Amino acid sequence: MIRSEGAKMVIRLVATYIGAVIGAGFASGQEILQFFILYGYKGLLGVLVATILFAYLGAKVLELSVRLKCSNYQELLAYLLGPWAGSFMDKLSLFMLIGGLGVMLSGSGAVLQEYMGLPRWIGIGLALVFVIAVIFNGLRGLLAVNVILVPVKLLAVAIIACLALAFKGLPQNLPVLSGLGVGGHWLWASLLYVSFNMVVPLAVLSSMGRAVSKRVGIYAGLLGGLGLGVAVALVTLAGLAFYPEVAHYQVPMLYMASGASSLLKPVFAILIWLAIMTTAIANAHGFASRLAPEGGRRYRVIGVLACFAVLPLTNIGFADLVKLLYPLFGYAGLLLLAALLVVPLFKSRIY
Question: Cα–Cα distances in Å, from 125 out to 4, 108, 130, 307?
Answer without folding.
Answer: 38, 9, 9, 10
